[in-house]
Design brief:
By secondary structure, the chain is α+β, with helices and mostly antiparallel strands. The chain folds into two domains: 132 residues, Rossmann fold; 212 residues, Porin (Beta Barrel), CATH 2.40.160. The protein has seven helices and 18 strands. An eight-stranded antiparallel β-barrel has the order 6-8-9-10-11-12-13-18. Strands 2-1-3-4-5 form a five-stranded mixed beta sheet, sandwiched between helices. A two-stranded antiparallel ribbon has the order 15-16. Strand 9 and strand 10 form a beta hairpin.
Amino acid sequence: MNKTIIILLSLFTLAVAQGKPKIAVYATGAEEQGTNKALETHMLTALVNSGQYQTVERSEEFLAQLAAERSKQHSGAIENEQIKKLGKQFGVDFICIADITPALSSNMVSVRIVNVETAEVAAMGYADSPLKVLPDLTDASQRVVTMMFGVTEQPVQEEIPEPEPEPAPEPVRLEPKYEPYVERREPVFSEPERPEPVKPEPKYEPQKSTKRFDPSSIYFSFYKPSVKSFYDYKGQKIRSNGLNTMIGFEVMGSSLFGGGLFIGGGKLGSNIGEFILGADVKKLLWFWEEVIAIPLSVDIAWRAQFMGIENRIVATFIDEPKFLKEPEDYLNKKRTMNKHNFDIMPSIDLQFFIGSNFSLYGGYMYRITYSSGWSFTYKTPGKNYGENKTGDNFDVPEEFNPLKNSKETVFILKKPGTLRFGAKFHFN
């Protein structure tokens, strides 16, 4: 009986497999032939496991004939008519051609499935991968199959028995509670009223000032901006992490409202410098009197950025023919371009007072920026400039802007804004 069931199941599986079209995989493009061979195996496995195709016998002979035909072509490509001829010879219904193309420090795996009968492309897909280890081939093959057919390897689903319904709980009857009756009677005779004791008058004492910290302060702070942007010239996304330090002076009034001035600067990424000058207004809210405060502030600042740009790049867009007459060593050097920003920065901090002359704080700052474009100054050879002018001003096109569509995020949480920390020294 068991042998009969096994034979019937085998025949059923064979019948299902016979109904699927046969496919072979041919990979090309990699410098090492072993990589092409491994990609053929992984791609064939992904196609068969998707349930769309079955493998073909004598696939090694078919692929060898296909490779020999490719070597005959001058372009190195395989024509669909030749695929049709070879496919009919070896009983192949579809041929999957996978090309590996190196691009931008990665690899593009592009795949097309050709119908051998009609020589038409039945499906196409692609995936990018570093292709450094074997799991990269498995991942790329599965992503291509998912793009073409919207399916992955079919998992085996286990039947989960439905839980038996639990019996409904019996309703609980609440017994009424009875309190014993207590008779309440008012006293017949009331107690005589007693005179209130005479309170001594309080002695006058001068009020002490509740404000222990000194209202003026000099502070030092720093924050780490993290900016995401897109550089058209290099065709890639850039994340620039920096560090800025600030020094400032502020005064608080009796209503805990005040303001001050600050100056500072730092670096964004490896090649962008920054200089900042601004003022702020602030309101101090006590969370724990004279110990912990919550300062709310709005900073307004002018921020200048500057970085180097190669003279050879400048020569591609500058509207000055004499620039190209500069010597070769001059074109290989860099010149400074600059950019001006107007920042509005609301912030909230948590401030801890240690005595009356020192405090530490840290908090969150959000920056709203209005920016100009990058520009630089160039002195044309042979042109006479006045005493107050050092050269002609040129604007840099947006494709050479390394901060295009920039967004500032908290470097840990990846949320808009940045975190800042600092210390204050208070005095009268």
